[in-house]
Amino acid sequence: MDDHISVAGAAWVPDACTLPTAARPLRLAEFDRFFRNAVRDVTRLSARHLRLRLAGSGQAEQTARDLTARESACCSFFTFDLSRTGPDALTLDIRVPAAHVDVLDGLADSAATAACGR
After folding, report:
1. CA 39, CA 33: separation in Å to the nearest integer?
2. CB atoms within 10 A of CB 97
């Protein structure tokens, strides 16, 4: 598995992020890996709202819960809502305030690229 981080992928990390700079590439790699392994569909519901349809495995759910909890701790402007939509499906809704739409744009692009690259 490739854990590379593209320059474009790193560009969406906001200044408001409190994660230490040295840890950011590792977090981006975690998101890339999660997107590759779990995301089945990416839908932009509005400028401030992204919906990811995920594989419904227990591992995908555990990873989503862990990753979003840690991301909320360093980027408190994110709102993550994970829900089971069927026995084999999960939905992850991600919302941001208007001031952070560019961050959601980057996250959406990363998720879409990873989902298409599978």
Report:
1. 10
2. 12
DSSP 25-55: HHHHHHHHHHHHHHEEEEEEEETTEEEEEEE
Cα–Cα distance list, 106 to 47, 49, 58 (Å): 12, 13, 27
Share of the chain above pLDDT 70, in %: 78
Residue at token pair 């932009």: 44
In total, the chain counts a number of residues equal to 118
Kindly report, residue by residue over 75-104, the tens digit of the pLDDT: 889 999 999 988 888 999 999 999 999 989
DSSP letter, residue 19: S
3-class state of residue 96 by DSSP: coil
